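$ fold --in a.seq
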Amino acid sequence: MWRFLGGGIYYGWVVVAVAFTTLAVGGSANGSFGIFYGYILKDLGGSRSSTALAFSITMLVFGFGGPLIGRALDRFGPRLVVPAGVCILGLGLVLSSRVTSLWQLYLVYGIVAAFGVTALGFLPVTASAASWFVERRGTAISIALAGRGVGSLLLFPFYQHLITTYGWRSAYLLMAVLIVIVLCPLNLFLQRPFPRGASVADRERARRLPGRGLRLEVVDEAWTTTEWTVGKALRTRQLWYLVIIGFFGGISFSAIGVHQVQHLVDSGFDRMLAVSVLASVGILRSFGGILGGVVSDRIGRELAYTLGAALSMLGVASLLSIAWIGALWPLYVYVGCYGIGNSMASSIDASTQGDIWQGAHLASILGIIVLGSGLGGAVGPWVAGYVFDRWQTYVPAFLLILLLTLCSILGMWLLAPRNIRRITRQAEPLRGAAAGEDFGSAAASLPLLNAPAPGEINRAAAGLASSE
């Protein structure tokens, strides 16, 4: 189903809202491992590196499961794949509450729960939002991805309260119940894929909303009219630049996500304060992600990515200095700069993937790119834990993160998405009936289920344009 809702609301925004909520509730399961980490470490025993290995395994599953989930999304759509992932995640969390050894944790949390997160998380969210938008793709994807940050703010303190009151095992059980009862019906009833069967050019025209001041201008016509498959994409340097950028970003995000609370506790901060910091970073990630999408839709992906990554580096440097300075102000700098900057870079990276790859095989191609992020995410926590076990400090690990972030900036400029599509301003936004005629003719070429007649689409589009 593809249409305007009452009042001229584009259904793509409903898809974005569903994706936002799915990441807020479901994505928090994976992001909250840093809260559970210290309690699991104490209960099951083992070194920091061996316990962090559970999270590293989840990222390996995320990476290697990406191509499989991407193919499933292209074939069955998010309406079936995401609820299946929700159920698998719920099962993994229930089993995690019963583990008595690290190998069991590796199996049920590292593999079962992780596969569920892969099926409901970044990959389906990015693929769904990217397929519904063109000019405002960066904004749409960033809003959807912001759900994880809002979920962090609202749910991380709640999970800490559950752990403190009932224990970490009961907290995992309650988390499983919350995720299943909220996300299964939401995605079954409201999630919709963009209609299939149209040509690349038809999809490009139909996803454009009339009357907007910004346009994603096609620079390389041959590239944008190609029906990209995984095989074709694998033979391009653009795909491998994105894989490498994802690998570097995965190391940074997962290493800091798992070890930041323990680093703050080691530096003399109260654990509840450290968890509050983690939640604050989460909500600022929401703001930063949206900011990154909006800014990159106006000044271009490369420059906006550079600004976000530079802010992220400043935040990591502040986190690094906390143990030496012994004051609160570096903590505030870390929360602000890393929370905003890292999420800006992440959302812009996701938008760039949507800019470059189009067509019926989008999710499968994104699944290959996710492989890089997953491998980086697997390496990061284990390396940081190993560094601490060996030298009793996280300093070398944080220095490595700074270097890799700098390399990712270089990678984005070498990728050069501006040479495929670039942001421009429309001199004269479309108005009135003309906008409706354009939009209606493009949309009429799509094979729509329960679709209104072309004249109704024209009137809806004209009403939307004239209302602006």
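$ fold --in b.seq
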Amino acid sequence: MRTGADGVEGLNPAWVRPMHGGSLPGDVVPAYTRALREEGFAFDGRMFGRRITG
């Protein structure tokens, strides 16, 4: 996903439709791709902030 962010940003799109019917205008693409690169977005073993064990 993080590698794909470079490709999306390089296209300089007018709109991005990331998934499930959402649409992002081109002026927010830099913030979107920055978040894809820098923010956590995958399951990390916690639910509602509590570590799941077992």
